[in-house]
Write a structure and sequence with these properties.
Elements: H1 3-20, E1 29-33, H2 39-47, E2 52-55, H3 58-66, E3 74-77, E4 95-99, H4 102-115, E5 119-125, H5 141-149, E6 154-161, H6 169-189, E7 199-201, H7 208-213, E8 218-221, H8 223-226
Parallel strand pairs: 1-2, 1-8, 2-3, 3-4, 4-5, 5-6, 6-7
The structure holds pyridoxal-5'-phosphate.
Length: about 240
């Protein structure tokens, strides 16, 4: 199948899951996870109806920006971000999903202040306490949200998670429900900021329907749109 058909198939799956859950399909964003894709493929995806692209790597983001590959779409950053690279991302993307530490949060705030802008962000939550993954522990999330609320340069928009790769769909559904509940709890405890907390970024190619059932407002889909990716370790950059 081609890209256009794949986009239609994922959109149909998303719509069906939303309707089954009694939700409005138009309230859920389909973000195309474009890591390893060429600028031409990104243009093709946007021409075929993709409205949001999510990048993982600063290098790829910078290269695609230089080539005006994203014209017509919003850009989000969804990958691990090092503190010393925030200047390549802040102000260049409309939402950073992967804010995984207080240090990074403050660095983003400082860079946004420098530019005189407000950067929308999500807190990445490491639900299963995986050593190999970054992100706040669920019990640190409220403190991190309070830190974010006190920084002028950032606007906290919600939470993001990547469940364990080995998970069954049902297991992932439980993780998604946990993230949803955590967002509800934080919203309740943060009166001042609650209107902004409307994004739940969860669900990928293998589990986006479960994520929609659990309240996702942004699914991040790569391989179901673009086909399988070569493993990162064998790629040439
Ligand atoms: C690659 C990636 C995705 C998409 O994964 P697929 O399984 O290919 O859909 C989503 N979120 C993040 C953070 C990713 O790195």
């Amino acid at each position: 199948m081609g890209l256009r058909e794949n986009i239609e198939a994922v959109r149909a799956g998303l719509d069906a899951a939303a309707i089954a859950a009694g939700r409005d399909p138009s309230s859920i964003t389909l973000l195309a996870a474009t890591k390893t894709q060429t600028s031409d493929t990104i243009r093709e995806a946007i021409a075929a109806g993709i409205t949001v692209c999510g990048e993982n790597r600063v290098q790829e983001l910078t290269a695609h920006l230089a080539g005006s590959a994203y014209e017509g779409a919003d850009i989000h950053f969804i990958g691990h971000l090092q503190t010393n690279k925030v200047k390549y991302v802040v102000g260049k993307v409309s939402l950073i999903h992967s804010v995984s530490s207080e240090k990074l949060l403050r660095a983003i705030g400082a860079q946004a202040d420098k530019l005189g802008i407000v950067q929308d962000i999500l807190l990445e939550i490491n639900l299963a306490g995986e050593e190999s993954k970054s992100g706040f522990a669920p019990e640190q999330a409220l403190d991190a949200a309070r830190t974010a609320a006190n920084l002028q340069g950032v606007r906290l928009r919600g939470l993001m998670c990547i469940p364990p790769a080995s998970g069954e769909k049902e297991e992932n559904f439980q993780h998604f429900e946990t993230l949803h509940q955590l967002a509800v709890d934080i919203r309740q405890k943060m009166e001042d900021n609650k209107l902004n907390m409307d994004v739940l970024s969860m669900g990928m190619s293998g589990d986006y329907q479960e994520a929609v059932a659990a309240g996702s407002t942004c699914i991040r889909v790569g391989s179901a749109l673009f086909g399988p990716r070569p493993p990162m370790s064998t790629r040439k950059d």
